[in-house]
Amino acid sequence: MRQVKMKTLLVFAGLGYLLLFVLQGQYMAIFQGGLQGYPDGQRMLLRSAHIYAMLCSLPAIFMGLYLPDRALRWHEHLASGVFLLAPLVMFLGYFIESNQSDTLERPMIRFTLIVIFFVCAALPLLHALGQRRSDRPEDEASS
Fold first, then answer.
1. What is the CATH number of the domain that holds 70?
2. Would you say 112 and 56 are in contact if contact means Cβ atoms under 8 Å apart?
3. Number of domains, the chain
4. pLDDT higher for 4 or 117?
5. Residue 57, C-beta contacts closer than 8 angstroms, at least 6 positions apart
6. Distance (Å, rounded) from C-alpha 120 to C-alpha 133?
7. In angstroms, rounded to a whole number, what is the distance separating the alpha carbons of residues 51 and 27?
8. CA of 49: how far to CAs of 31, 43, 139, in Å?
9. For residue 47, is it within any domain?
10. pLDDT above 70 as % of the chain
11. What is d(CA 133, CA 4) in angstroms, rounded to the nearest whole number?
12. pTM of the prediction?
């Protein structure tokens, strides 16, 4: 029952983040004039942070759709938490870091992208290790 709640939470949170992505695009179009007249560097930062916000919402949806119907392992709990929090950090990074015209540095956004990358890369490996361990016969494990 608990994993069903986590699956549902991930899917709806991911869809909510996609809705925030659309609203962020509308914010850019209405309040930032479609980024017309912005310096090239700042316009690039704003657009890339906007696309990264969408990118961060997708793993939550996929994780929610593909979580197995069993008790979650530690790495699945960890990944779920990362996928729930990463889009929030990304949206904050958009409003805090991308509006700085004097620097191209965005540590919040960079850190979030790196964490998402490593979690997405580690999940299949940890899943394969777990499968290999559970497929091993009991006699081999005891000897």
1. 1.20.120
2. yes
3. 1
4. 117
5. 14, 15, 17, 18, 20, 21, 87
6. 21
7. 14
8. 16, 10, 53
9. yes
10. 90
11. 24
12. 0.79
